[in-house]
Amino acid sequence: MKPMCLMLAASALALMASATTLEAKSPPNVLVVAKNIDDIVSLDPAQAYEFTSGEIVANIYDRLVEYNPTDIEKIAPGLAESWTVSDDGKTFAFKLRQGAKFASGNPVRPEDVVFSLRRVVTLNKAPAFILTQFGWKPDNVEQMIKKISDTEVALTIPETFAPSFVLNALASRPGSIVDEKEALKNVKDNDLGNAWLSRNSAGSGPFKLRIWRPSEAVVLDANKDAFKGAPKMNQVVFNHVAEPSTQRLMIESGDADIARNLGPDQIAAVKDKGGIKVETYPQAALHFFSLNLKHDKLKNPAIWEATKYLIDYDGIANTLLKGQMKVHQTFWPEGFPGSVNENPYKLDVAKAKDILVKGNVSSGLTIDMDMISSPPFTEIGQSIQATMGQAGIKVNLIPGTSAQVITKYRARQHEGMLLYWAPDFMDPHSNAKAFAYNVDNADGSPQSTTTWRNSWLIPDLSAKTRAALVERDPAKRLDMYRELQRAVLKESPWAMTFQAQAQVALRGEVNGFVHGPTNDLVVYRDVTKN
Questions:
Q1: Do 460 and 337 share a structural domain?
Q2: Neighbours of 129 (CB within 10 A)
Q3: What number of H helices and E strands is found in the chain?
Q4: Which of 208, 316, 351, 445 has its CA 20 to 30 A from that of 379?
């Protein structure tokens, strides 16, 4: 079986999808995943910030605490078997589980935890802000993260935050624990092993990295020493397949066991075929249409309210996107603790017209709407253009590449924007700070939130967001975020529209695959083929 697996990894199955090899099957002890993996920049957990790299890192590394992808209401023990929080909420002491080993065979030590977390702050790569928001900085991190015994580490934060906020952040990607000895053996130019870890692994998770060939393949080998037990599959092979139509051929032929990027048409084509099953998983990514209040013509709140009634939510979700989105109108995704799942807005052109008239909105309003020039944005944008037009609002679609659109948005140069947002970690503050916090609306502000980008200055909501961040009573804290969601739903200059749903095609013999609401919660440990 091994030679065939290496062939799959090397060729990315590009040839095997042809008609001449439709009878090929993947080996019984190897899971083959057809997926677009060209977004990977680095597999170092201190740097990985893309969807695919996050998924792979999550299957290589463990963290002190972790989520259960099928029950994300609670933080569960990971490499830490238990923890305590000081009375003032500033010191977290973690007791490490005994017997845990890295894939190298080295034991997981307090020194590895200290090294890993300090390393994220020192390198200061893209995901570092998740930890530096605690107040950790390169010049204080040695005092803040310490070994206190052969089995314990202590993490100190300068300010009192809700314990759940701290634990949620530690359960995210930059909280991954790296084998210090392996990393330091491969240091180059004082990079703490960054270059080496971009293409190699030093974790304790269920798999270890065999190879990454950019835009071609990633191969993971089972880590037999994983503290939760060896995974069922000997290998997981991610083959870069950008075209959904090619992924469809591969899942139909058996060249792939799982196809991850099928569009609505491909899903419809395979869902009723024998030997294939389609499963749907709610995701954390939220889509929205926003208005930039830097433009005087868009400052009237009547416009904000009216636009919420000028989107065909159900038609887009059910007809255009065929189940790959679900209607969701608040800023925290359904399925996450504290989410408000209320969708009061429906397409109602007559109501929108009445709101515009009562709000003294002059006729002939024109809005330039920027959007990414690819599905699903093109379909959503064209639908919004048509329904807004029914109320006399002319929407000019301004398509561009992702880089062009996001750059313009970050510079606050748009009028209307069709975009999406996904939380950086699974705590409601991640999205509350984006959608309910703006205390400095100046162009030079260091803020980079959705509120700031749309020039919505909200001191009162910002104060409530800050209060929720430091509230230590878990139930009360979630109620505070629910209040924020309802306020933003009613008052904001944007319409939250949809929550993404991942539709995944699997061969009938594949069982145990888990796809949580983020890519960090895609789990291959328990997958079997029988």
A1: yes
A2: 14
A3: 19, 21
A4: 351
